[in-house]
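Reply to thread "Modeling small-molecule complexes from scratch"

Following up on the discussion above, here's a worked example others can learn from. I took a protein sequence and the SMILES for coenzyme A and predicted the complex. Inputs first:
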Amino acid sequence: MVIELFQLNPLTAAEAERICLWRYGPGWTLYDFGPGDLPAIAAPAAMSHGVRRGEVLAGLASFGAGARVPGGSYRQPALDIGCSMAPELVGHGLGRAFVGAVVGFAWRRFQPPRLRLVVPADNRRAIRVYQANGFVAGERFAGMLRGGIRPFLQMVCVTPAA
Ligand SMILES: CC(C)(COP(=O)(O)OP(=O)(O)OC[C@H]1O[C@@H](n2cnc3c(N)ncnc32)[C@H](O)[C@@H]1OP(=O)(O)O)[C@@H](O)C(=O)NCCC(=O)NCCS
């Protein structure tokens, strides 16, 4: 029997409020959440899930329209995914397993033709983790995040991990 390190469940209201307090510290403030994010996180269209490690809220995962960034190209049929690890867990070598849990869940739950995500093009740490989970770099585009335009990279995964 395989025991998963991370489990996904539909996000609770209490978890959504806690996520709005997440701050990533110097150099990573672009990824901070705030009270203004609550409606988007809680919207049914975001299909938000809490990623738990045991009883601890370890991250947020969103699927579908809620994971899209304005400016991106969304013509190809695919399931869009977005995920954020809780700040206190970041940087401890858990990224690959964390994203792997989100990706595995997405394949099993939604059975999409492919998975797609977008990431700020300078976030080499996240890109490394996505590549390790089978995503390949696609087109670059100028996307809107936190009210600013910045370079983004689209990445696609076409096959579930063996
Ligand atoms: C993306 C995320 C899941 C990665 O998890 P993590 O715990 O920070 O990453 P890890 O400690 O597992 O490190 C992942 C890899 O990046 C490398 N890395 C760490 N910091 C890095 C940096 N500043 N630049 C480049 N690579 C870096 C690590 O060496 C490791 O490489 P390896 O797998 O070859 O050993 C996590 O940082 C996160 O969700 N952060 C929230 C903000 C964010 O970046 N969101 C992504 C939005 S698209």
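What I'd highlight from this example: The first helix runs from residue 13 to 19. The helical segments are 13-19, 38-42, 95-110, 124-132. Questions welcome below.
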